[in-house]
Amino acid sequence: MLQAFADWFVFSLLGLDAASRLGSSVNFFVYDTVKIYLLTFTVLTAVGFLRTFLSPATIRRALSRQRFGAGNVLASGVGAVTPFCSCSSIPLFIGFLEAGIPLGIAFSFIITSPLVNEVVFVLMGGLFGWRIAFLYSLSGIALGTIAGVVIGKMGLEKEIILNGGMSGEALDLPYLPKSFEGKMQHALREGIAMFRKLWWVIAIGVALGAAIHGYVPQEFFEKYLGTGSFLAVPVAVLIGIPIYAGCSSLVPVIFAFVLKGIPLGTALAFLMAVSGLSLPEGIMLRRVMTTKLLAIFFGIVGVGIVIIGYLFNALQ
User: Residue ranges of the domains in the chain?
Assistant: First the structure.
């Protein structure tokens, strides 16, 4: 039904040629934008309702009691349902450390949080299919869990410097509604507020993807990041690290990459590097940890992203 609407709007109402690059790009933009907007608002509201049952303070208390890897799994799960980019996850990460939560468990949260959330899941499902969305989300949670366990076993607590001037308390909710009606009202307000912050980001991402879809030749991508290049995945990770963007704005772009011939795993590795290993995140984290720990964090997560990229390429 959405595709029929997009075809009518672009080719009948606007009168664009379906065989032209402009017509193809605009049709791509209209269809994906409407679909993603509907899915995003619905899921944001649903998750906002679920969050009314659990405050950040409660999460910190629960995580501080977990040991032997269970805390890492729980922290990665918490990261997966928090709609934060890498930089906005840092205050809560610091709050975890201040609350005495083990270092590895705190890292499991900050690794997974920017990579997996409900918005990314919806975008992935809408563009790539729900099987890929589930596999991507599971791989992000697995990366956060395993990397957190590894960092926790390395005894690096002395590398933390908790004098960066940021506090995790800012993200605590001052009030959680008790009644069902109150929870629904809170969820709708949160869904609307989050959608207002995201709609233009999604539109820009889809517009870039539409431009790539209509105007960039497929041969360009096949030449530099095609299936024949074994180094394509690590190169994609290295290219992604200096760039900073949220997953929600990048998913439509990498979807256009895949349509142009870039292997799925290579495109997802680029997405993960941009959203989970950005330079702004590194600069902010340097305020609360030594360069040694920061380098270990980037190195372990970078290797994990490369492995995930190769695994997704093998599944194609």
Answer: 2-8+20-315
